[in-house]
Amino acid sequence: MKREIDMGLPTPGQPFSWAIGSGDMLFTTHGPVTPEGGILQDTTEAQAHLTFQHFRTTVEVAGGTMDNYLQLQIFLTDPADVGPVDAVYRQYFRAPYPNRATIIVAGLVAPGMKIEVTGIARIGTD
């Protein structure tokens, strides 16, 4: 049975949940969404920090830690941002790192949005 994980962001205007849990699995997608529901209009690094802070909040609300993430997909609008985002990423994740793909896209859903990340975590014991 799936359950919504309420991590404190405003309800999205589109038909999706910020995070869904099912059993010991957590599925989430985040971007640089402010507490008011807008997109942080700032550098890619600042957007990455806010996005990964959302990942931390989500997994902690679900009862886990950042070490519980198994896989991430990072969508960026500029290939030049891969290095700077990697530097931010290392501040939130540690080895062994989650499996990861970085995908360069022509654009994201909201104007000014430079990063969006999807993640899968397992909250439980091995």
Low-confidence stretches: none
Through-space gap between termini: 21 Å
Fourth-tier CATH superfamily name: RutC-like
Helix/strand order, N-terminal first: EEEHEHEE
CATH topology, by name, is 60s Ribosomal Protein L30, Chain: A
Q: How many whole angstroms does the radius of gyration measure? A: 14 Å
* Name of the CATH class: Alpha Beta
Overall domain count: 1
Strand content: 25-35%
Largest sheet: 6 strands, mixed
Number of helices: 2
Helix content: 10-25%
Q: How many E strands?
A: 6
Order of adjacent strands in the largest pleated sheet: 1-2-3-6-4-5
Mean pLDDT: 97
Question: What is the level-2 CATH architecture name?
Answer: 2-Layer Sandwich
Give a nutshell description of this structure.
This protein is α+β, with helices and mostly antiparallel strands.
How would you describe this protein?
This protein is globular. It has a single domain, classed as RutC-like (60s Ribosomal Protein L30, Chain: A, 2-Layer Sandwich), CATH 3.30.1330. The longest helix has 18 residues. With 126 residues, it is of the alpha+beta class. The model has no long low-confidence stretch (mean pLDDT 97). 28% of the residues are buried. Strand 4, helix 2 and strand 5 form a beta-alpha-beta unit. A six-stranded mixed β-sheet has the order 1-2-3-6-4-5, with helices on one face. Helix 1 packs parallel to helix 2.
Topology:
Elements: E1 2-4, E2 19-22, E3 25-30, H1 44-61, E4 69-76, H2 82-92, E5 99-104, E6 115-122
Parallel strand pairs: 4-5
Antiparallel strand pairs: 1-2, 2-3, 3-6, 4-6
